[in-house]
Amino acid sequence: MTASPPSPAPADGLPLPPPRAALSAQTCREVVHLLTNPVVDSLAFLYVVTLLWSGAFLSVTTVGLPLLAVGLIGARQIGKFERARARLLLRVRIDEPSPLPDTRRGPLQWVWTRLKDPVGWRQILYSFVRFPWGWLTFCVTLPSLVVAWPVLPWVARGLTNVDRLMVRTLLAPSDELERRVAELESDRGAVVDTAAADLRRIERDLHDGAQARLVALAMDLGLAKEKLLEDPEAAAKMVDEAHGEVKLALQELRDLARGIHPAILTDRGLGPALSALAARCTVPVTVTTDLTHRPAPAIEGIAYFTTSELLQNVSKHSGARGAGVEVWRSDQRLLVQVRDDGEGGATAEPGSGLAGLAERLDSVDGLLVLDSPTGGPTTITAELPWWDQRDQGATA
């Protein structure tokens, strides 16, 4: 056997790409892509021009922006087709972008979410760029099939490399940023729903608790005032009863304020606040806190109310004889672990309290890990991002 002669090298010393057969499978796919560019790009360009013109013309009416929002959904579908065409003919590995977030807060929010969709707007830009380029590639490729057949593989590869670059630049997902935006949109909805539920709970507690007690108290004092001269002893008894009602109303208001944000958490921090919380639990609870300084108030509040909900579950559902709470920091994460020696079998099924808790933690980049085999014990770990209070100018 004799050695084949070395491939010639260009002036810069880099070897030339090896020749390929003009009718190779990949060259045929690339030529098909280039020859179909004018049809696909012209239809897409016509769509986006009509969309933008209609949206601008009707923007002074109530249908302009909704029409543009619907049109951007259609632009997303064109982008999906273009990515599929690139995968099939150009062998480009490209992922689909994140779907639009599920919006259930009214038509205005639905329209606004779609109007600020970066995927749809990038497809519109892609269609504008592609329209002249698609016709240029067609005008170069078609004559090459006849008069420049030997160099057709290199012509097709050069032109489709530009196509590949356009697809990767304008139609590919924006790394993790776009996915993160979609996640935050969804998480914001969970936060808003949770806040609304908390406000309804506070309103209900005020209406059914302290407010009703204060109304009854005002009526009793009014009756006592009427009896003050006629029957002083009865009036004194009613005033004494009203005094007891005042104490109960004050206690209810304190409990309600503690449920909104306990004063001990603000004044003394997470450790003492969790110890006070454990003291009110119907199951004996030990609290261990290993923090050199305090996290940001927002993280302290989330950790406190997460522990409060978990200890309520221990009291109501676990059948435990004892429980423990541990709090520590690991790198840039705050971890709160609640364990009990109860019956186990806890699950985070959709609609359950633990599922709602996990959803609220996820809204702040948190995580809930559940380990509860049947028969126990149960260990639930809440992981939260560490936001340093000292970064906000506070002291530990």
Please describe what this structure looks like.
It is a single chain. By secondary structure, the chain is of the alpha+beta class. It folds into 3 domains: 25-173, no CATH class; 189-260, Single alpha-helices involved in coiled-coils or other helix-helix interfaces (Up-down Bundle), CATH 1.20.5; 263-392, Histidine kinase-like ATPase, C-terminal domain (Heat Shock Protein 90, 2-Layer Sandwich), CATH 3.30.565.10. It contains 11 helices and 5 strands, in the order αααααααααβαββαββ. The chain has helices spanning 25-57, 64-90, 107-115, 118-144, 152-171, 175-230, 232-260, 263-268, 270-279, 297-318, 353-362, and strands at 285-290, 323-330, 333-340, 367-371, 378-385. Strands 1-2-3-5-4 form a 5-stranded mixed β-sheet, with helices on one face. Residues 1-14 and 391-396 have low confidence and may be disordered.
Strand content: 5-15%
Number of domains: 3
Number of helices: 11
Radius of gyration: 34 Å
Number-wise, the strands total 5
Spans of at least 5 consecutive residues with low confidence: 1-14, 391-396
Strand order of the largest sheet: 1-2-3-5-4
H/E topology pattern: HHHHHHHHHEHEEHEE
Alpha-carbon distance between the termini? 81 Å
Q: What is the share of helical residues? A: 55-70%
The overall pLDDT, averaged over residues, is 79
